[in-house]
Every structure is written in structure tokens, then in C-alpha cells.
Specification:
Blueprint (H helix, E strand, L loop, with lengths): L15 E6 L5 H10 L3 E6 L2 E6 L1 H10 L7 E8 L3 H9 L12 E10 L6 H20 L10 E9 L2 E7 L21 H10 L8 E3 L6 H10 L21 H14 L8 E5 L2 H14 L5 E5 L13 E4 L7 H4 L2 H14 L4 E6 L4 H5 L5 E7 L2 E8 L17
Parallel strand pairs: 5-6, 8-9, 8-11, 9-10, 11-12
Antiparallel strand pairs: 1-3, 1-4, 2-3, 4-7, 6-7, 12-14, 13-14
Helix pairs in contact: 2-7, 3-4, 5-6, 6-8
Length: about 400
Amino acid sequence: MGLISDGDIDRNMQELELIAPCHFGLEAVLKREITDLGYEIVSVEDGRITFKGDQAALARANVFIRTAERIMIKVGSFRAVTFDELFEGTKALSWEEYLPRDARFWVTKATTNKSKLFSGSDIQSIVKKAIVDKLKGNYHINWFEEDGAEYPIRVFILKDMVTIALDSSGTSLHKRGYRQLVGKAPISETLAAALIMLTPWKKDRILVDPFCGSGTFPIEAAMQGANIAPGMNRTFTGGHWDNITPKRIWDEAVKEAEERICRDVKMNIQGYDVDSGIIKCAIQNARDAGVEQYIHFQQRDMRELSSPKKYGFIITNPPYGERLEEKANLPKLYRDMAASFDRLDTWSKYIITSYEDAEKYLGKKATKNRKIYNGMIKSYFYQYMGPRPPKRTSDNPSATL
């Protein structure tokens, strides 16, 4: 299906081209999510994937994808090395197919890299003027009230190639709606979900986060295990775009998400932290996410970590010392972490940190080390693979637990 409203169909728009940005280094995870939803990948770039889908793809991608920062409709792209070329290239795009007469639109962000044009504020102003100029001719009016639905616009310029898109998510997709309470240096929900998906963890295996903070890793794992879509309990800017994807399409995506939930799943997910206050926050966040029944949160020091179970998983984001006085404590912290982790000798351990000496004080080289940018912070995802569990048999049905 193409670009439609409830009353008519625009035959010129048979499909949408969508852009999904993500954390640098996690493109493969996002690509898998998009293909699993049934959509065709157009291109994979650093921190961004472009794909094609019908009108329902806009809603389904927002509701179901765990690792994208937002979902945008690509309006068009062109080359520009001068502001005149930027104006003319923007004006040439088919804005009338996306922006109704009463649209409230603005350029919310402009980013450039390795390009002649580099002033973000000038780019924003020129793109807005070009769109207004185009729509004046289409709608035969000189003044736009802009009292209708919001259509935020984003501009990306890379090596002089301009891409302009409509942001259908609004608030970033890492805002699932459950994490009202956070601790110090929290990991984002989208990054936590992607890191979990990089591991072979499955819902029948025990998972522990000994530095759980406000509970993001345990909560995202529980949502994955119970197949709870990350966007089913929040709203999106594109939900008001009746000219592109009518509200009923968004309602159908949420209904599909509700039908997919595995409500009777059994999981053993645990989160520990030395701060009793932040544990209370984590419990409330899990409750708001609808997964409190799957997670056991407890005030507990990482040094007390132990478990009689085998072949479990540790996925965690330990302190990495933002201030100088904190950095002085890191060697001992990471040595203590190594001693605790070594007691769980059949477990797999996954650690994200920006602390560059982590491997040194953990005492062993990681099986794999993946560089990931957490915002602007260069981080490392150290992966210590444990032995594979024995296969289940009728005599030993819980072998992998």
C-alpha cells in the first residue's frame, strides 16, 4: 500500500523508504530486527539503516524494533555544496505528498560530516524556507497557520550528500515509557536491548546483572523473553499523520504486539546493586514495564555474587570512573569483579565499559571485544564465553538452566 488517508489513496506512493539510526557498531543487530519484521534492506551505513516497507511498516517499526533510536520517512536526497543548491534541492522534493496544508513543521536537527556545508542553524533555516516556498505553490497560499499535526524534519549531510527525513517517532525510541526513575550513568534502553541480542542468552537461561542500577538490562531481557514490544505503551508523532499512516494502522500494530506477548513464560532474571534506593527504582521500573514477575531485584554487593546454577549469563555495565577520584578505585573494583566472576566458572560474562584497562584488571583477555559508541563515549563490549551447556535429555531436562 502507498501513502493514504482514510478517504483516499495516493497512487504515486506505493511504498515508503524508512531510515532507522542506531548506535555505531550495532548495525547488524538492527538489520536483523528489520528483516525479521519482513522488510527489505536498502542500505547499511555507519549508525543508520535504510529499508523499504508498506504504510504499516512505519507503525510496526516504531512499535516492535528494540534497537533503533527513531524511525524516519526518507523524503529525498541530493548533492549540495552551496546553500543555493541546498535550497533548490530541498524545494524540488515532493513535500506536498507528506505535509498537509495545516502541518506544523520545523527542522529539529541538522548534522553534517565531511561536507562543505557545516553550519547546522543555517541549514535548518534554509531547508525550512525551501519547504515553505514549495508548499506556497502547491497550496496557493502565502501564510501557513501550522496548527495541525507535528511533522519534525531532520537533515543529514555526509560527504556533500543531503538526506532529508520526517521523524515519525518524536521522542527517541529508547524512551519506552517504563523508566521514570534512573540512577547514575544509566545505559539507554536501546543499547541494552542490542547488547543482550548480541549474546546467545535465551529466556530459559539464568541472567544476572550485578550492577543493575535502575534495572535496564534485566527489564530489557525480560521484555525480550516475554516478547513484549518496546513501543506498545507509548505514543509516536507519526500516530497523528492520517495522511500517511492512519490511526487504525497504529492501533493494529499495537494489537499485533499484544497478541504476541508470551504471558506464561518462566524466567530467572536477577538484578543486584549496593544502593538500596536504586533497587527500589528498579523494582518500580520493572512494574511499569509489566515484567516485575520475571525479575528478582536485591540490594547486594557484587563481591557476594554466587549461584548454585550453571551455564548462566552475566550482562552488566559496571562503573567506569567519570571523575578522577573514582578512577583511582577502578583497579580494585575490577579485580574484585574478576574474583566474583571466576566463582561462576561455567557462566558467560558480558561487560560494557569505557574503562580501557578493564581486561588488564579482569585478569584475562576477552573471547571477543566489540567497540561500541555509547553516545559520544567510546566503549568496549567484552565478551567472555563460558562452556556450552550439555543438551537436554529426558533424564536431565534442566541441564541448561
